[in-house]
Amino acid sequence: MITTREFGRTKDGRKVLAFTIADGRSSVTVLNLGGIIRRLVVPAADGRLTDVVLGYKTVKEYEENGGYLGAVIGRFGNRIGGGKLTVDGIGYDLYQNDRGNHLHGGKAGFNTKIWAYGIAGNTLALSIISPDGDENYPGNLKATVVYTFRGGVLRIHYLAESDKKTVVNLTNHAYFNLNGESSGTALGNVLQLDSDLITPTDKTMVPVGGFRQVKGTAFDFNDPKPIGRDIDGDDVDLKRGEGYDHCYVLRRGTEKLVKYATAYGPKTGIAMDCYTDMPAVQFYAGNGLDQQGKWSKYGKRAGFCLETQAIPNNVNVPEYAEKGSSYLDAGEKYDFCAEYRFYNK
Fold it and tell me: Which pLDDT does position 255 carry in this prediction?
């Protein structure tokens, strides 16, 4: 069942709606502002309902406080080096909003938009038209993000199509803390992540080519470990990100949807298995968080993100595009998904 209520108004007077999808005692609340996942409530091992995603209380805070908490990111999640994009030999200069690079769709990305909505049973579909030239991207792009929540599984299905060749790399920027969103740092959350490679970055956090083996380094999560165990290690890539803020290349088999990670909150017993058909995931440990959240102050590393996506900057690095290109031809269907499956350990 989906219930709808008015959450508030934007500074220019637009109505923001909150949609709550119930799944037994569990529920997820999504806003039509930015497709934001504002609440995700699941039972702890002792039965206590626990909100496991970071968020804000008001529309004003979502507009002003930053952090992309829970939002859909587009047209291009993560970074494009120097804001430089070439499509069919034509160069496009994108807005540089992060150390000379284009980040998360630019000045006014999809996280800032009011999305149209449709409801069918326990399914919420949000859609947006991004016109040709929006943030200087080519093509009229229609994007749809479909949310379902049943049987403890939150599924996010990303769809898009353009009338002109363009680039698309959609993701969601939910910050998780499986010990509870107001429980303090998420460094005690235990993470296991199936990946042998990360993409090292330059000083501005843009991957510019090459891969790095994680074995024997602080980046190795193939065996479960607390997020905080190695986060402050003496490692050039860790220091550049001030902790984990790196793209992990996922192992791809013949299955369309693969499990790539498991996270666990020892204080609550809440576990989360993560699945996707995308080629990579950005693991961000919330190193820059410093916000007043729903019920507490979110300090540094109060939550972590697992942002399924194509490799950042693949539009400028052919070896990254070989593992999944973000170029989308006119009329081609962009169709990917991510799932988060919750249970108690």
Answer: 74
